[in-house]
Amino acid sequence: MLLLLLGIILLHVAALVLLFVSTIVSVWTSSETGTSDLWFNCSATNGGYHCDPASTGEWIQAVQALMILSIIFSCLSLFLFFCQLFTLQKGGRFFLTGTFQILASLFVMSGAIIYTVMSPEWVSETYAFGYSYILAWVAFPLALISGLIYVILRKRE
Protein backbone atom coordinates (compact mmCIF):
# COMPACT_ATOMS: atom_id res chain seq x y z
CA MET A 1 0.00 0.00 0.00
CA LEU A 2 2.86 2.35 0.80
CA LEU A 3 4.39 1.83 -2.65
CA LEU A 4 1.02 2.55 -4.25
CA LEU A 5 0.69 5.81 -2.32
CA LEU A 6 4.25 6.79 -3.24
CA GLY A 7 3.55 6.05 -6.90
CA ILE A 8 0.36 8.12 -6.88
CA ILE A 9 2.10 11.02 -5.18
CA LEU A 10 5.00 10.88 -7.66
CA LEU A 11 2.56 10.83 -10.59
CA HIS A 12 0.73 13.82 -9.14
CA VAL A 13 3.93 15.76 -8.47
CA ALA A 14 5.20 14.97 -11.99
CA ALA A 15 1.98 16.36 -13.49
CA LEU A 16 2.22 19.42 -11.23
CA VAL A 17 5.84 20.09 -12.24
CA LEU A 18 4.91 19.80 -15.91
CA LEU A 19 2.05 22.25 -15.39
CA PHE A 20 4.36 24.76 -13.69
CA VAL A 21 7.07 24.45 -16.34
CA SER A 22 4.67 24.66 -19.28
CA THR A 23 3.00 27.75 -17.84
CA ILE A 24 6.13 29.63 -16.78
CA VAL A 25 8.70 28.85 -19.49
CA SER A 26 8.46 30.96 -22.63
CA VAL A 27 8.67 28.39 -25.42
CA TRP A 28 5.11 27.59 -26.48
CA THR A 29 6.17 28.43 -30.03
CA SER A 30 9.70 28.92 -31.30
CA SER A 31 11.71 29.67 -34.41
CA GLU A 32 15.30 30.50 -35.26
CA THR A 33 14.65 34.18 -34.54
CA GLY A 34 12.58 34.03 -31.37
CA THR A 35 10.05 32.45 -29.06
CA SER A 36 6.56 33.22 -27.87
CA ASP A 37 4.46 31.97 -25.02
CA LEU A 38 1.50 32.90 -22.88
CA TRP A 39 3.17 35.99 -21.46
CA PHE A 40 5.79 37.36 -23.89
CA ASN A 41 6.85 37.38 -27.54
CA CYS A 42 10.64 37.50 -27.76
CA SER A 43 12.74 37.94 -30.87
CA ALA A 44 16.42 38.32 -31.70
CA THR A 45 16.94 41.51 -33.71
CA ASN A 46 20.15 43.38 -34.49
CA GLY A 47 22.25 41.22 -32.20
CA GLY A 48 19.93 41.77 -29.21
CA TYR A 49 16.98 40.05 -27.69
CA HIS A 50 13.72 42.00 -27.47
CA CYS A 51 10.57 40.88 -25.61
CA ASP A 52 7.09 42.36 -25.93
CA PRO A 53 4.11 41.47 -23.77
CA ALA A 54 1.68 38.96 -25.24
CA SER A 55 -1.32 40.30 -27.08
CA THR A 56 -4.35 41.30 -25.07
CA GLY A 57 -6.73 39.14 -27.08
CA GLU A 58 -9.43 37.30 -25.21
CA TRP A 59 -8.22 33.89 -26.31
CA ILE A 60 -4.68 34.30 -24.93
CA GLN A 61 -6.13 35.56 -21.65
CA ALA A 62 -8.39 32.51 -21.58
CA VAL A 63 -5.37 30.23 -22.07
CA GLN A 64 -3.48 32.07 -19.33
CA ALA A 65 -6.42 31.72 -16.94
CA LEU A 66 -6.95 28.04 -17.74
CA MET A 67 -3.29 27.19 -17.20
CA ILE A 68 -3.23 29.05 -13.88
CA LEU A 69 -6.47 27.36 -12.83
CA SER A 70 -4.99 23.97 -13.68
CA ILE A 71 -2.02 24.67 -11.40
CA ILE A 72 -4.27 25.90 -8.57
CA PHE A 73 -6.61 22.90 -8.82
CA SER A 74 -3.72 20.45 -8.98
CA CYS A 75 -2.08 22.02 -5.89
CA LEU A 76 -5.42 21.94 -4.06
CA SER A 77 -5.86 18.32 -5.08
CA LEU A 78 -2.49 17.36 -3.62
CA PHE A 79 -3.28 19.24 -0.41
CA LEU A 80 -6.71 17.59 -0.19
CA PHE A 81 -5.14 14.18 -0.75
CA PHE A 82 -2.87 14.61 2.25
CA CYS A 83 -5.75 15.94 4.35
CA GLN A 84 -8.03 13.07 3.34
CA LEU A 85 -5.24 10.57 3.87
CA PHE A 86 -5.29 11.34 7.60
CA THR A 87 -8.98 12.19 8.11
CA LEU A 88 -10.90 9.90 5.75
CA GLN A 89 -12.56 6.86 7.29
CA LYS A 90 -11.31 3.40 6.44
CA GLY A 91 -12.86 2.26 3.14
CA GLY A 92 -13.60 5.81 2.00
CA ARG A 93 -12.78 7.04 -1.47
CA PHE A 94 -10.82 10.14 -2.46
CA PHE A 95 -13.65 11.61 -4.57
CA LEU A 96 -12.92 15.26 -3.79
CA THR A 97 -9.21 14.86 -4.52
CA GLY A 98 -9.93 13.05 -7.78
CA THR A 99 -12.49 15.63 -8.86
CA PHE A 100 -10.06 18.50 -8.37
CA GLN A 101 -7.32 16.67 -10.27
CA ILE A 102 -9.65 15.75 -13.14
CA LEU A 103 -10.76 19.39 -13.34
CA ALA A 104 -7.09 20.44 -13.47
CA SER A 105 -6.53 18.07 -16.39
CA LEU A 106 -9.59 19.42 -18.22
CA PHE A 107 -8.37 22.99 -17.70
CA VAL A 108 -4.94 22.27 -19.17
CA MET A 109 -6.52 20.40 -22.08
CA SER A 110 -8.88 23.29 -22.79
CA GLY A 111 -6.03 25.81 -22.64
CA ALA A 112 -3.87 23.76 -25.00
CA ILE A 113 -6.75 23.30 -27.45
CA ILE A 114 -7.50 27.02 -27.50
CA TYR A 115 -3.81 27.78 -28.07
CA THR A 116 -3.63 25.21 -30.86
CA VAL A 117 -6.64 26.62 -32.68
CA MET A 118 -5.93 30.32 -32.20
CA SER A 119 -2.12 30.58 -32.37
CA PRO A 120 -1.90 30.66 -36.20
CA GLU A 121 -3.69 34.03 -36.08
CA TRP A 122 -1.17 35.37 -33.57
CA VAL A 123 2.15 33.73 -34.36
CA SER A 124 4.02 33.79 -37.66
CA GLU A 125 3.94 30.67 -39.85
CA THR A 126 7.71 30.26 -39.46
CA TYR A 127 7.20 29.34 -35.81
CA ALA A 128 6.76 25.75 -34.62
CA PHE A 129 5.24 24.56 -31.37
CA GLY A 130 7.84 24.48 -28.59
CA TYR A 131 8.54 22.19 -25.68
CA SER A 132 6.36 24.08 -23.17
CA TYR A 133 3.37 23.47 -25.40
CA ILE A 134 4.26 19.76 -25.61
CA LEU A 135 4.72 19.60 -21.82
CA ALA A 136 1.22 21.01 -21.39
CA TRP A 137 -0.15 18.21 -23.56
CA VAL A 138 1.88 15.62 -21.61
CA ALA A 139 0.58 17.04 -18.30
CA PHE A 140 -3.02 16.50 -19.43
CA PRO A 141 -3.04 12.68 -19.47
CA LEU A 142 -0.84 12.48 -16.36
CA ALA A 143 -3.26 14.67 -14.40
CA LEU A 144 -6.26 12.80 -15.79
CA ILE A 145 -4.80 9.39 -14.90
CA SER A 146 -3.88 10.50 -11.39
CA GLY A 147 -7.37 11.97 -10.93
CA LEU A 148 -8.99 8.72 -12.03
CA ILE A 149 -6.71 6.75 -9.70
CA TYR A 150 -7.78 9.00 -6.81
CA VAL A 151 -11.45 8.35 -7.60
CA ILE A 152 -10.91 4.58 -7.69
CA LEU A 153 -8.59 4.47 -4.67
CA ARG A 154 -10.00 3.36 -1.31
CA LYS A 155 -8.37 4.14 2.02
CA ARG A 156 -7.01 1.17 3.91
CA GLU A 157 -5.27 0.93 7.25
UniProtKB/TrEMBL annotation:
It is found in: Cell membrane; Membrane. GO terms for biological process: nervous system development. PANTHER family: EPITHELIAL MEMBRANE PROTEIN-RELATED, PERIPHERAL MYELIN PROTEIN 22. InterPro entries: PMP-22/EMP/MP20-like, PMP22, PMP22/EMP/MP20/Claudin, PMP22_EMP_MP20. This is Peripheral myelin protein 22. One of its GO terms (cellular component) is plasma membrane. The chain crosses the membrane at residues 62-82, 94-118, 130-153. Pfam families: PMP22_Claudin (PF00822). Might be involved in growth regulation, and in myelinization in the peripheral nervous system. The lineage of its organism: Eukaryota, Metazoa, Chordata, Craniata, Vertebrata. The keyword Metal-binding does not apply. Coiled coil: none annotated. Keywords: Cell membrane, Glycoprotein, Membrane, Transmembrane, Transmembrane helix, Ubl conjugation.
